[in-house]
Specification:
Two copies of one chain form a homodimer. With about 400 residues, chain A is of the alpha/beta class. In chain A, about 35% of the residues lie in helices and about 25% in strands. Chain A starts with a helix and ends in a 6-residue tail after the last helix.
Chain lengths: ~400, ~400
């Protein structure tokens, strides 16, 4: 929702959907830079604003957007009614700035729908179990949309984004990346967990767990995008691995706790101290103890790096008896995602070779049943995506 | 297929299914210890038998079983016809002892079905692109069944095992483990990739990629088992993590390549040398470079440990400039599997704390979007499963 023009375009699209006979509920995020501006305002009046007040402030952004969209709809003769997260029945936990949805009771939204009035719901917000306004944080609007689609038992949840669908790699990085007409939930989940920016991983988790059909599509071209399905009918031979996509993530930093005693409880206190601060830890790698000491590395969103470092320095390091911690924000994580990789060891070998042949060093490795990730130097990550996209034959399909 | 009695029981079950109006195709593995006995025979006549002859020998086991089952069926008045892997149309690659299925052309099986004659197909075998008999290796019979179900467009693939379904943990280890009535494909895939012994991971990969509905059930009690579905309707609150199962795997060993130069190509030559020897590498962990050197750890099936060690010692270590390699066969891998773990950092913290509180040290860690795995000492692994099963509330559900 960048500006009034965009709002009119969206309203026009909604009017068309209605004319085709679809019942539509809108979930709207804040306008363009609105949230950033609000954050900036807060920073000017308070060094450490309380979570409760921050959420009260930030959610004003969506509040403006829903009202404006309703006005634009009414202008087109489409009856519409705005709902805050609370009004739409979003009950969350009390974790301000990053609240999680506990329940959705969309009675008022349903009533509006039943009366032929388009409900326009504020994304990324709710009311906590302590009756405070909460903000869902990053990816909140997509998650609101999916959870609402589930609660309303909607036929489809369409996520409109600035990209035209899910791609086999980021098209800005790999120009030969293809838009996929379909992707499976578990593959998309690994993709969004490893850097595919849209849709938000949280929303994919909720959609997957609650079986909400997704359509990821462009809010600009209105062309069909990518359908997220339970499974994709494989065309390749029975037991061959099927590489679907290459993702990369430049938003993380690496923290290494160096030379820590290899004894029970080390990882526990480390990760509890991070979890308590609400820091999402991503890749966790603990390796090879030698002479009773080990290194533990993990990646965190760079925006949480300071908090993570603080968590480490405030006791954890001395408590654990670690020698020091190492911080490396200049990393990129490159991942290959696809089916049947686990029983085909050649996939990992091909990935490592492709990087090696191009002189790209691997810093960390981690694998799952449908993914292999390598951490490499930040300034080589985009190249790595291109080489891997080519090596796994994704260019020319 | 332990003995003639079991064969009669199976034949009886098939007869019942037919009376209920179901078209049935049987996939049969070798009798009880048959395969082991054939391997033992081979060892007595040759130190290093060729792969081609080994496959010729081993596949004789299923050949006997299909013929005997057909006889038992005919005895009950059920017309039946046996098919080898080749006759059933299983085309594989040329990788003897561990061949992968390329295509299934089940014309003869279909004809038999259409004529009302029960096809009885030898599991775990096929014919290679070079027209040699091939053995599919571990998990081959389950994989044959799934691939055949797909090729025949069957309504359901029932995998009869010695357990009554898929459990939230190994019931021998965690007595409070529950049989799940349903499990999703991606969760079962991670479970079988981390130690859940039945069904074979390969077969789950194929079923997942080709959308073959599975029913994992007991060949002894005939009670309903676990249905493998695309997704499970979640009952918990919208964004809470749902821990589904705790798995453990005692079949792997850890190899650490110690103090290797941290430069491009190291992982590549390491894992290519393993892939070339057909060694399935499981967990791969590379950590934290210090002063330009790093350690790389990975796990391999203990039965491949010797080959892996050989691969390392035959050049790789000197080539790479590693100081030495460390081998630890006394490990167990314990994993927690479930949905929405990635956006809930508390799950990892709880896992680590549970282990720590019970004095169990963590040796390696690896994570995916729906799994966290810890390598621990072999003699603490089973306890770890119990503690985690309890900690994640799986006991009392």
């Amino acid at each position: 929702m960048a500006d009034p023009d965009r709002m009119r375009t969206v309203a026009d699209h909604v009017a068309r959907c209605r004319r085709r006979g679809d019942d539509v509920t809108l979930v709207v995020s804040a306008m363009g830079k609105e949230t950033d501006e609000l954050l900036h305002l807060a920073a000017q009046v308070s060094a450490v604003p309380s979570g409760r007040e921050m959420d009260m402030l930030i959610t004003a952004g969506e509040r403006k957007a829903i009202a404006l969209i309703c006005m634009a709809l009414e202008e087109l003769g489409v009856p519409a009614r705005s709902f805050t997260g609370s009004q739409a029945g979003f009950l969350t936990d009390t974790n301000h700035r990053n609240a999680k949805i506990l329940e959705v009771n969309p009675d008022r939204v349903s009533e509006s729908l039943d009366s032929g009035i388009v409900p326009v719901v504020a994304g990324s917000q709710g009311v906590s179990t302590e009756r405070d306004v909460t903000f869902l944080g990053r990816g909140g609007s997509d998650t609101t949309a999916v959870a609402l689609a589930k609660a309303l038992n909607a036929q489809m949840c369409e996520l409109y984004t600035d990209v035209s669908g899910v791609f086999s790699a980021d098209p800005r990085v790999a120009p030969s990346a293809r838009k996929m007409s379909e992707i499976s939930f578990d593959e998309l989940l690994e993709m969004t967990a490893t850097g595919c920016p849209k849709p938000a991983m949280r929303s994919v988790e909720v959609a997957h767990n609650h079986q909400v059909p997704l359509h990821v599509r462009s809010a600009f071209t209105w062309e069909p995008g990518t359908l997220v399905v339970q499974a994709i009918e494989s065309e390749s031979s029975v037991e061959q691995p099927i590489i679907r996509a290459v993702t990369h993530d430049m938003s993380e930093s690496k923290v290494t706790v160096v030379d820590v005693p290899d004894k029970p409880g080390v990882s526990a206190s480390l990760f509890r101290s991070l979890a308590d601060r609400g820091i999402d830890v991503d890749m966790i790698v603990q390796n090879a103890s030698e002479e009773g000491r080990t290194n533990i590395s993990f990646t965190v969103p760079t925006e949480h790096l300071e908090r993570a470092e603080e968590a480490m320095r405030s006791g954890v390091i001395t408590e654990l008896g670690a020698r020091t911690i190492g911080i490396n924000p200049k990393i990129g994580r490159v991942s290959v995602i696809g089916a049947a990789m686990k029983s085909n060891p050649g996939v990992a070998a091909t990935m490592f070779e492709t990087l090696a042949n191009n002189g790209i060093n691997i810093d960390m490795i981690s694998t799952s049943a449908i993914r292999i990730s390598c951490v490499v130097a930040a300034d080589r990550a985009e190249e790595a995506v291109q080489y891997l996209h080519t090596a796994f034959g994704l260019d020319d399909r």
